[in-house]
Specification:
The chain is an alpha/beta fold and 201 residues long. The strands form two sheets. It has a five-stranded parallel sheet, with helices on one face. It has a three-stranded antiparallel sheet with strand order 1-2-3. Strand 4, helix 2 and strand 5 form a beta-alpha-beta unit. The longest helix has 11 residues. The two termini are 13 Å apart.
């Protein structure tokens, strides 16, 4: 599914901090209930060290009526087992955890410290649970089974060489009842249209 906007999405705020000798800037995302999820981003680092627009869109989408149980008034993510692929800073999985989901935020080894830091910063908002684990696409997924109820992905479709490992990981992790929610920015230049076509084939 390709989502390009979310109604009533509040604008995230950026705050600059100096911690140790590393520079961080904090992205704040206000939820519908007025609470604020805060994630540290690194001034230096690869693509996973910052919050991308697709992550903000997906995080806000999790709070829409599409996830509202009309009988209970609760978010349908409550008590669900959720796995986020390519979590980066973890903002999407963290929002899911604040909505009651039990979330495993996965990414490469070099992002684990940042993920753990951001889980700690938001611990008081988490009503489910959140843990960070290393998962390299295309490698063994046994530690992440049984299949989760939901797999979240935000802006994971952009490197041509990662399409096949990503698809293989999705196949390995998905059960009959697993719902995969994919949000990405449609890019029209370079190899991006080709990469998107390969993924959806």
């Amino acid at each position: 599914m390709s989502m390009q906007s979310v109604a009533n999405a509040s604008e995230p705020t950026t705050v600059w901090l100096e911690q140790s000798e590393d520079r961080y800037f904090v992205r704040e995302l206000e939820k519908n209930d007025g609470s604020v999820v805060k994630v540290n981003q690194c001034l230096k680092g690869d693509v996973g060290h910052v919050v991308w627009d697709a992550a903000i869109v997906l995080a806000k989408y999790l709070e829409t009526k599409a996830f509202l149980n009309s009988a209970t008034g609760l978010n349908t993510l409550a008590s669900k087992n959720v796995l986020e692929l390519g979590a980066g800073t973890g903002i999407v999985g963290l929002v899911a955890a604040t909505l009651g989901a039990h979330v495993i935020l996965t990414d490469l080894d070099d992002l684990q410290d940042l993920l753990k830091k951001n889980i700690g910063v938001n611990q008081t908002l988490i009503t489910g649970s959140a843990t960070a684990k290393v998962l390299k696409w295309g490698e063994n997924t046994t530690d992440f089974l049984p299949p989760p109820d939901i797999i979240l992905m935000a802006d994971c479709i952009y490197y041509e060489q990662s399409v096949e490992p990503l698809v293989n990981t999705l196949k390995a992790l998905s059960g009959v009842d697993t719902c995969v929610i994919c949000c990405y920015e449609q890019r029209t230049e370079g190899v991006n249209p080709v990469v998107e076509r390969r993924f959806f084939e």
